[in-house]
Design goal:
This protein is of the alpha+beta class. It has helices spanning about 5-10, 15-30, 40-55, 55-65, 75-80, 80-90, 120-125, 270-275, 335-345, 360-370; strands at about 110-115, 125-135, 155, 165-170, 175-180, 190, 205-215, 225, 240-250, 255, 260-270, 275-280, 285-290, 300-305, 320-325. The structure holds zinc ion (2 copies).
């Protein structure tokens, strides 16, 4: 006769918990539903019986003392407990413990709302009132799902357990399987008079306005989470979360590069040569800008602190303005004569290859190409 401890693969000093774990592991491996072989079925019997004995403190004590225990001596007792043990470990249908009805009350789903911002909103952050369409608690029944003054009644079919049991005779004795009750959908109760307002759902759809401050620095695709502002659950279950998904529309003038803003500044050829001061309209309002004499096409003028405040930070990025020197395309005879005269006097070198220069415009071009 096999030793019960050996059968379970545990030591004689094993704790009840270790015994339980060993049994659970072996039962999963050897259970006839999983492992149909005759060998496995024999071992399963032994394992189950060993567990029967060793999981009971009194029986284990007697066994340890060499008392009159025989693995199959118990007859009906030896296998009578099998279904119960199996139920205890593996539960009824759907991983649910047999005999426990499920609750109507569940957590509500998360809700997603899309919000479109322009670049200025991103730079400064913005306050928005957003209409949200979600399930809210039914005020008539306050989530009970019943007409006021009535309540759920115990299901006649499953007597409140939410489960119906089916007994299957097998080689190993009776196997009881549980399935959710069809009549009450596993709730254990039925609602004879559903609330008319919510049709017995405990919640109704409603439009409400959520007002919130969207922080500076957000970008397209970012989701802001508002915990507990999503759908209320069935039968008044807790709310899911609300997510706001941000889309930032492209700006005509400015584009974003990390925390910086980029823009292009058209400068006439005489201004580029002689230098000038000008006022540009930034997202913060007018900013004075000095263009030094001899500025080159592709030079970048940096205006500190007029970029974007990062989402997690306070230090604003910069506004970077790339110089674009505008070459005149139409000259009258007098202008042409002046330029020709200028060319003669300056003795400018002929066009020639020069060191590769990756300016702001190359960067901007890449960005447009990738977007
Ligand atoms: Zn209701
Ligand atoms: Zn039922």
């Amino acid at each position: 006769m096999a030793d019960h401890y050996e059968v379970l693969g545990v030591s004689r000093e094993a704790t009840p918990d270790e015994i339980k774990k060993a049994y659970r592991r072996l039962a999963r491996e050897l259970h006839p539903d999983v492992n149909p072989g005759a060998d496995a079925s024999e071992r399963f019997k032994l394992v189950t019986h060993a567990y029967d004995v060793l999981s009971d403190a009194e029986q284990r004590r007697r066994y340890d003392m060499g008392g009159g225990d025989s693995p199959f001596g118990g007859g009906a007792q030896g296998f009578g407990g099998f279904s119960d043990i199996f139920e205890t470990f593996f539960g009824g249908g759907g991983g649910q413990r047999a005999g426990r009805p499920r609750s109507r009350r569940e957590r509500g789903q998360d809700a997603l709302v899309r919000v479109t911002l322009d670049l200025k909103d991103v730079v400064f952050g913005v306050h928005r009132e957003i209409d949200v369409d979600t399930a809210v608690l039914c005020e008539t029944c306050e989530g009970s799902c019943c007409q006021p003054g009535t309540s759920p009644v115990t299901c006649d079919i499953c007597h409140g357990s939410g489960q119906v049991q089916r007994t299957v005779r097998s080689l190993l004795g009776n196997v009881v399987t549980s399935q959710p009750c069809n009549v009450c959908q596993g709730y254990g109760t039925t609602i004879p008079y559903p609330c008319g307002t919510c049709q017995g759902q405990g919640r109704v759809r409603s439009r409400r306005t959520v007002s919130l401050d969207i922080p500076a620095g957000v970008e397209t695709g970012l989701r802001l989470q508002l915990p507990g502002s999503g759908e209320v659950g069935p039968a008044g279950g807790p709310n899911g979360d609300l997510y706001l998904e941000v889309t930032v529309t492209a700006h005509d003038i400015f584009s974003r590069d990390g925390d910086d803003l980029l823009a292009t500044l058209d400068v006439s050829m005489p201004d580029a040569i002689l230098g000038t001061t000008t006022t540009i309209e930034s997202l913060d309002g007018p900013v004075d800008l000095e263009i030094r004499a001899g500025v080159q096409a592709g030079d970048v003028l940096t205006i500190k602190g007029r970029g974007i405040t990062p989402l997690r930070g306070t230090q604003r990025g910069d506004l970077k303005v790339g110089v674009h020197v505008v070459t005149p395309t139409r000259l009258d005879a007098k202008e042409r004569a002046l330029i020709e005269d200028f060319a003669k006097k300056t003795k400018a070198p002929a066009p020639h290859l020069a060191e590769f220069h990756q300016g702001l415009f190359a960067k901007l071009r890449d960005r447009f190409r990738n977007s």
